[in-house]
Amino acid sequence: MSDWVYINYNGVDAFAPQPTPFISLDEQGIYVNELWGRAETMTLQGQLTGCTYNDIVAAQSRLLSRFEKPFQSLEVYQQTGNVSWKVFQKDLVEITSIQFEQSRWIGVLPYTISLTCYPSGLFSGAYGILNPSDTWSFNEQQNMALDVTHTISCQPFNTSSGPSNALDNARNWAFGRTGIQSLISPILISGVSPDNFCLLTQQESIDRFNGTYSLVENYTNDLTRSGYGVIRYTTDITSGNNLISVTLNGTAQGCNRNITGTRYALAQLDKTAIAANAYQSVFARNDLNPIPLSQSINENPFTASIDFSYSFDNSNLPATWFDYTVDCSVGTNGFITTSIQGTVFARGGDTSSKLARAKAYASGVNLYDLCLPFYNGFDVSSSVVPLNPVPINISQTNSEVDGTVSLATTYNNSRQFSSLLDRFEANINVSPARPVYSTEPILDTNGLYSVVNLGYKTRTSVAINGSAIINRNVSSSAGVAAVRSAAYSLFTQYIAGGGIVTQSIMTTSRTDERVVSFDFQWTCPGNGGISL
Amino acid sequence: MALNFPNVSVLGLTQNARFFDAGFLFSSTRRLTVAGVLLDLTNSFGITGIWTGQEGVLATIRNNPNYQPLVLNGVNFGSGRIESITFDPGIDVRTKTYQANITVFDSGNLFNFTGEYYSGINTSNFQYLQSFNETYSFDKKLNGGYSYTHDASMQFTSGVGSLYSIGAAQAVARTLFTGSNLGFAFYPGYTDKQGKRYVSEMYNLISNECAFRETFDFDNDNGNYSATQTVSVQLDEQGIVIATENGNIRGIENPNYQKALSAIGVEMTGSYYRCSGAVSYYFPTGALLLTSPVAQGRSIDIFNNNINYIVSFNNALNNKTGYFWDYTLEVSKQEGVSTVSEQGAVIGRGENSTISFQQAQAGFGLVQAGIAGRCGALFTGPYIPTTNYLASKQQSYSPVKGQVSYSYQYSNDPTLIANAGVRRKNVTIEDNDPVYIYNQLGILNYATILQQDRQATEGAQTVSVAVEGDKTVSLSTFLSSAMSTINSNQPAGTDVRVGNASYTYDVNQNAANVSLTWLYNRVTFPTSYPG
Question: Residue B261: phi, psi to the nearest 5?
């Protein structure tokens, strides 16, 4: 056994029985700004020898077959006598090229083999990874949200002599860098709070044949507040004719399908204060009604987002109010009919709550008092005769569907003669006193009569008749007495003097309808209002 | 630790000056190629010695990554790094040659990096710049606004001493994006605008490439805010001119949304003048726009610093100061009596119910004063006579809705006599004239013969007067009014006297019906009747 140097590839003497080639070594730094790793290129330059063309072809075939499998070990041994030792070893060697020079392929055939490897101990970065990139991108949005994109990409290389593990290398490296642990704080953007980063989406892109790999994480961050999610809204204010309405429309965007967190974030938002601030900014007023007119919530648990809408107005009405219309009408006789109809509304809450509050409020509504100011100013007759507080009719309608209560009633200005009577309608019929004549025709006078004034007058007869309705809270006898009193009061109001004789006093009462009809008659010596 | 290469030959040295194209030498690089040889001169066989030396050189390089003091043959060449090293092929028994490529950074000379455009920029680490790029542009927009984009990207060399590349980039960026005069001709005052800039930053944690972008955009420059408007005018089929202004307000100076909010009132105050100006140009013969807007809307997005508003004006006749007034006038005639009715509604304007109802009531006061005149003007042509009085009226008040509705009816019904007091008087006269009295005598198989008695019946005339009026009118006034009419209707004849009299008074309806029968004698008869 002589002394020599030999080279094994994949555990086999790659060149025997041919001469061992020369080896050159080139080591290049792989810089990703700073040193990431090193690549080594080994160039084996040698010659195949053979006496015949076939010998050369056989040697060339043998050489190719010994270097057909990449990612195996290249070892250089030196042997002296029976002792050999390894001078050099490179693992996971890629066979970049095997080049045979132009030749007659007889005698000598020069060749060059290029081999490349990435020695595992020479990577300050991750072994198995080339072209690494780990980028944080911060984009301040016009809506004061910060879009944050974390992109991790690389081109892996195989580090296994068996099945390729390039893709595993990429995944392991990239996944190890996900999350916000590596976050670097932006320098020009203020208000960034990594604790509030909300991971919206993740993207993984793979080219498994060419070995490119990338991960993208998209975060969002609210620069205007701390806490989970991003809440954005617009405030719409309309005005010009009547009430000023303020509507808050917005979206609370959470992440990770954490709708509970989004709900909580939205609950912390003081919607009323926001609406009031916008209102105050525009109108310099502080009287926005804090109870929202309506609320709308639209949840998407999959995107952890909530669309919301709250509407307010500056109504100065209380939480429960009566929206009514008072109607006054009159003809030429000063008889005024006043009606009121309206609906009690409750602001805020659900329908059953609204109805309960509306009912409670309705029970305290004094319809007469509401009518009175309008009646009093309506007509000249209003100043003479007050509005009769006893309603002609009255109704209440409860709407369980709408949570409202409707009220309606009608009054008029018929005189109230007694608080015991709901209604008293009377006619005064008077036959005034007139002179009494004796007339006799005079014969052959073609129409001449003897008319003699007898020198006295008839008695004035006065009849007051009509009908009345007794109040339900009053006994029938008391009601009839009130009717009598009212009728006589009328009589004394219009007929004065002595010698009055009552001719008849008649009342008819019906207990079922509490109606009393009456007919009172008197005679008196006066003129009954007309002097004839 | 220094990279020490003894016994090497310097094969080449190239020093490249690195300039910004504006003439600033910010850095220099020296690229050296050195050659050396490994010796094992006592060796007679094998490569172990030489290759051990090769590994030793490589180990030295590997243990000194990035930039280290480079000492060649005892001379320090500065901070450098080994880009590559190549060991040549050979028999490797006693010698082996190698070459190494080395890069050394050196500082530049920024003596001329001065002046208003460059003051304040941090250049302390410029010698370590791997790459640098900065551009900015200003666009003067069609609408009078400006938009600005400022980009800068840079990469500082890593591994040079204690230099923190990203921190160095941030330090430069901070000075690039604050305060310096950027040299704009269109808008030299740009840097005085302290408005909100939107920033993007990008950092590659591995390559340490950093990029920064700042944008700033505003429309028409109104000082600390930007406002733009569009005005549209239209004449609809009803002949109403409607002018609408759509506006957009964006704050320029910080806090921008508050500047925008503050500007709403100012801009909307000017809306009328812009709208009326457009209307007077396109529809010069039309009625002027009412100063009170028909509708106003504002959409406030404080996050986007964006406020949109809309204001509409019109010249509709129903649009009054403080209220809207819609009404109709109707005239009709039936059985010779003409009736004119006006029905309308006054809707008050106001920020709440209280104010709007006050406005409605005030508006109705103005409207009400003109009802009689408007109605009276329609008693003409086929609807005469012109004398007319109020027949009925109705008013409805809705305090919460801020509305007053009404309906008034005027009529030339002759029974109407006044608008106050005794308002209606309806007179009925029934005459029963005297006639001769005849005796009739039937003669058998001949005829009925008449014998005039030379006497006549008594005449009777009944005058009935129905009167009604306001509640202010007393019964005695009704009776006086009625008796006046009755007395003026005494029949001619002798011995005229009261035959019968009565009246009825409805207490609630305040209406009286007075009836009186006159009796009389008459010796002369009208000749126009037979007999």
Answer: -60, -40
